[in-house]
Amino acid sequence: MIWSRTTTAHLPVTPEAVWSVLSDLSRWPEWEPAIATAQLDGPLAREATGSYAPSRGWSRALHERTAPPLRVTGHDEGRRLEITQPNPVGGMRVEWTLVPEGQGAQLTQTVEITGGLTPAVVLGVGADLDRGFLDAGVRLARLAGATPDPTLPRVVIAGGSGSLGRLLGARLFARGHDVRVLTRHRDPRLPFDQVIWDGRSVGDWADVLQSDDEAGVALVNLAGKLVDVRPTDANIAELRSSRVDSTRALVAASQGLGRPLVSWVQASTTAIWSDAHELRVTETTPVPEPGLPQMTGVARPWEDATEGANSEHLVLLRTSIVLDRQAPALQMLARLTRAGLGGRVGSGYQWFSWIHHEDWLRVAVAALGLDPQVRIPDGPLIAAAPHPLRNADLMAALRRHLHRPAAPPTPAAMLHVGAVALRSDPALGLTGRHCTSTVLRDAGFDFVHPDLDSALTEIYG
């Protein structure tokens, strides 16, 4: 049994500075929260021995009692470090490689776990190392001396502790921006400065939007409750209020600023068009009235709440399903496929609009006005790849990439029953939209992953 994950972080500091921290294994816990302790028994060299302990309580206790010494199994000074932790029937190998990238560095981490204990090691430490690596890369870069570029705008991300916020924060940090996160609850794993707010009213948190620097402040608003809940009146009201109230608070705070925000990217969703059937949706397609209450009924007031925003530039970023290994939607589809339930859902004819996380990040950066090659006008912007596909084709592609055989369909009635048990919304699987962006096309934006096979190959190999 083999489990392997490779992730690359882009760091705004030289490879030499990164290596000065990376090569000292005792500092691993300083930048990687999944690790509690680490040390070598002597100087760094190939075949040197040492030890580490995971942070998870049960895993740490078991590891400290039973694990043999780790070994340094690869060492190219300034470029590559590999350690291997054996166990009785396999082991875990962690490799880091460093290459120059412009004025910074590209750090790639590979975690490979083999043998009969693979599931336990993945659960105890491997998945944490993979899942948190971009956050860890930010901490590592700061320990290596990375500081924000004062000529670039500070970027404040409201709701930045979610998966997209963390990805965007890491990308903006790599570009040299000072990244701050507005959050209701402090997250010790988040590597950015966190400002606590209630998401409803203006308070001391609004100071983070103030700046006397010429570069100013940009805002990304991702705040809002996760959408995968039962579509009850109470849940829909909470979905709506968590978005509208926080947006209105940001608007009110912006109106008290001495100077406008340089840009504002307001999260929204292509679900604003509800179930669009065979309609070919672009930015100029009218929003339906009334639409589904859990879709149009949430997204329309969310966008409307930006009225009065004090910003030089404002984009309504209508995002489709973002494909990333950690994204909840793709994780759910992958679990179903691996369990033999990867057949079409309902008729299978509903459209599936999507975007790979790398392209979403590039769209968000352009929407902030930070990409001189791609100028995005104010107004709605669809974040979706140029090739939507039917649900049946989506599920076939997932089976192919996850190496699973053909599977029976999931009838709509069965999905409705299952959604009750899972406290989910069956409309998320049974409705769809064919969404593409004429704004991105006209701006000359080139997708890294324009088709689904390219996106899934990058994610699953």
Automatic annotation (TrEMBL):
Pfam families: DUF1731, Epimerase, Polyketide_cyc2. Residues 155-287 form the NAD-dependent epimerase/dehydratase domain. Signal peptide: none annotated. Residues 411-459 form the DUF1731 domain. It comes from the Bacteria. Gene3D superfamilies: 3.30.530.20, NAD(P)-binding Rossmann-like Domain. InterPro entries: DUF1731, Epimerase_deHydtase, NAD(P)-bd_dom_sf, Polyketide_cyclase/dehydratase, START-like_dom_sf. This is DUF1731 domain-containing protein. The lineage of its organism: Bacteria, Bacillati, Actinomycetota, Actinomycetes, Micrococcales.
